[in-house]
Design goal:
62% of the residues lie in helices and 0% in strands. With 81 residues, the chain is mainly alpha-helical. It is extended.
């Protein structure tokens, strides 16, 4: 039972509760639709979330020495926030 409670607690931390909306122009949405059709992507939310977070984390990694004095703790369980 204890392991199940820990799993539930971890799942609560990963639950997505914040919504964000993105607007696209006609050419952008056509490009996205073409990409999803070509690569048989059914879950566009997952695609966009992975691309956005991947881009953000890559930028953090590239800019680390100039942006942060300490190690970034965005996903550190012990960090305040």
């Amino acid at each position: 039972m204890v392991k199940k409670r820990k799993a539930e607690k971890k799942d609560d931390k990963l639950k997505r509760v914040y919504r964000s909306t993105i607007l696209f122009n006609q050419k952008e949405i056509q490009a996205i639709n073409h990409y999803c059709k070509k690569y048989k992507i059914n879950n566009r939310s997952k695609l966009m979330r992975e691309m956005i977070i991947g881009s953000v984390l890559k930028k953090f990694d590239e800019d680390y020495p100039t942006l942060f004095e300490n190690t970034p703790n965005l996903f550190n369980q012990n960090a305040n926030g």
